[in-house]
Amino acid sequence: MIVGSRFKRDSPFEFISVTMSDLKNRVSLIGHVGADPEVKSFDSKAKLAKFSLATNETYQNGKGEKIEETQWHNIVAWNRLATIIEKHLNKGSFVIIEGKIVNRSYNDKEGEKRYITEIVAHSMNFLGPKQS
To answer: What pTM was estimated for this model as a whole?
Structure first.
């Protein structure tokens, strides 16, 4: 089922079609890395990178005051992308992350069940140094 399409002039193809399967569980975030990524390597030669990403939203409230809100996101990347993150990403890096939202649970050290929401990244683009 095609849910939308658009004409792309500079493409050898006339239309770019967007299907429902392309839109399932997809997220794009633009923000700054909150801390140096934590990278782990496993015996199976898999590699895992984890880091936090801050996204900011600025708006004016009813009194005309400028309000800035920050949301923090847990980002997870595997293998090749984890290797790139390990080499090039650090606290303050300004990036675009694309991936999917995953909710999971685990038992903490006290045996209590905890829930976490993560973005499993499948691509990343650097936007430049952190703005001051």
So the answer is: 0.76
Find out if CATH 2.40.50.140 is the number for domain 25-128: yes
Tens of pLDDT, residue by residue, the chain (132 residues): 444 444 444 545 455 555 666 668 999 999 999 999 999 999 988 999 999 999 999 999 999 999 999 999 999 999 999 999 999 999 999 999 999 999 999 999 999 999 999 999 999 999 975 554
Domain map (residue ranges) of the chain: 25-128
- Give strand pairing partners of 74: 52, 118
